[in-house]
Amino acid sequence: MTRLAIAFVLAPALALALALAGCATGRDPTFAEGPAPRDAARASGARPPAPPLDLSHPLTLPECLRLAETSPPTAESFRARLDAARSLVAAAETWPNPVLAYQAQDLGLSDSDSHALTLQQQVVSYPLGFAWTREIETGLARARERGAAASVAEERRRLRLDVGRAFYEISAEEALAGVEEDAARVAEAVAALVERRVALGDATPLELEQARAEGLDGRRRGELARRRAELDRLALSLVLGADRPVPVTLAAASAVAPPLPPEIAAAPAGGGAPVPGEAARALAAPAVERALASRPDVRRAEADQRAAELARDLEERRAAPLAGVVVGAGIREGPNGVGGYLGASFPLPLFDRNEGRRARAGADLRAAAAETERARRRVALEVEGALVAWQRARASLDAYAEPSARARDHALEEVRRRLASGDVDYLDLLSAERDALAARRALVEARRDVAVERWRLIGAVTGFEPSPFGEGERP
């Protein structure tokens, strides 16, 4: 009869424990959604096979961006960080497990009538105090999840910025190599002309040696430029997802011209000096406003500040005794029969009122607020600086590099014509050739600077969200 009574009294407690355990192990429906095959693959540790990487054709900038973002190491790192943040939210939303305890006292003791004095107790306890902090803990986990997502988006923005810069710089290096090789071919042609003039007695052997040395220098500079471009293409292939360094071929940079954001469409692009002072800041104001509203680094700082606020509120709540309340219920069997048991426990804040953690949370909040303000100022500086740099690069290209290259080419043609008639000597031609070569180098570098600064300006204003090339666009 006693065992039956124990089972009768203990059964509801065990049912409550099993029910609470089921709640504790269940997942929020928000995190249970998603394709089942991918979840199964993640659970087993398997990864879907990556599509083969095709680098056999000239790659445009949009293709380079897509390959870099879908590169297996990069994409897997981004997914893992986002999954880790989501798992923290799932953990914060999960109920704690109940605790089933069993105690036996006075084992082996008996009274004078040989009746056992053993006292047995079965208790199910539950930390009800978790409800006091659960809402804030869940909000804190969600704020940190938003911060992790913004951090991934910021890394993706920087990746796009680096890939675009590398694309334009490699294209410029190849163009510079072509300039040097053209100069070497011209120098060799001039050397052949000087050699014929030496045979006729119109030139000296020293001039012939100078012409040959100029051709060798041109070949050397072209080889160095090609080597730099080759090394950069190998490095770019790893960023694009290749297992081993392989040379990639890039499409012509002139075929890739992402549109500028409409917020800076009114800014002067060139044809004169950049707008100074307050006028420049007024032109940049709409772009700065858009950047502050959309840039992922600002969103990350704001999410971190919100997380710091919730962490402070959480420490404030933990200072109250309600955070540690634990209740228990069960049965007790002893010499006098079977009885019920009810109990509760909570901490007494006599010595520790959580002052240290509360002070630290307050300091972290102040630091997060300061970091948010610094992030906003950095974004404003980056946008205005990128706008000024792009304006100056365009002005330099329009006002100096292109006119100078045209003038030097015209002067070179005139010197070549006069050299054929004998009005100038080889030294004049060599000087004109060097000037034209320097002007062509400056033109290639100026066009590179315009492309790079334009790309940097787009990234500073829009964060490359949405894609600067548009959905499905094929430049």
How are the secondary structure elements laid out?
Layout: H1 2-25, H2 29-32, H3 36-44, H4 61-69, H5 72-93, E1 99-105, E2 119-126, H6 130-200, H7 205-239, H8 277-294, H9 296-318, E3 326-334, E4 337-345, H10 355-420, H11 426-462
Antiparallel strand pairs: 1-2, 2-3, 3-4
The number of strands is 4
Counting structural domains, the number is 1
Q: What is the overall shape?
A: elongated
**Poorly predicted spans:** 1-46, 269-273, 471-475
Q: What is the CATH architecture term?
A: Up-down Bundle
Gyration radius (Cα, Å) is 37 Å
Strand content is 5-15%
Q: State the order of secondary-structure elements, H for helix, E for strand.
A: HHHHHEEHHHHEEHH
Helix content, binned percent:
55-70%
Which strands sit side by side, in order, in the main sheet?
1-2-3-4
Class based on secondary structure composition and strand pairing: alpha+beta
Largest sheet: 4 strands, antiparallel
Number of helices: 11
Provide the residue-averaged pLDDT: 82
Question: How would you concisely characterize the structure shown here?
Answer:
This protein has 475 residues and is of the alpha+beta class.
Key traits:
475 residues, alpha+beta, Outer membrane efflux proteins (OEP), 4-stranded antiparallel beta sheet, 11 helices, elongated, disordered N terminus
Report on this model:
This protein is α+β, with helices and mostly antiparallel strands. It has one domain: Outer membrane efflux proteins (OEP), CATH 1.20.1600. Helices cover 67% and strands 7% of the residues. The protein contains eleven helices and four strands. The protein has helices spanning 2-25, 29-32, 36-44, 61-69, 72-93, 130-200, 205-239, 277-294, 296-318, 355-420, 426-462; strands at 99-105, 119-126, 326-334, 337-345. The protein has a four-stranded antiparallel β-sheet with strand order 1-2-3-4, with helices on one face. Helix 5 runs antiparallel to helix 6 (130-200) and helix 6 packs antiparallel against helix 7. The N and C termini lie far apart (87 Å).
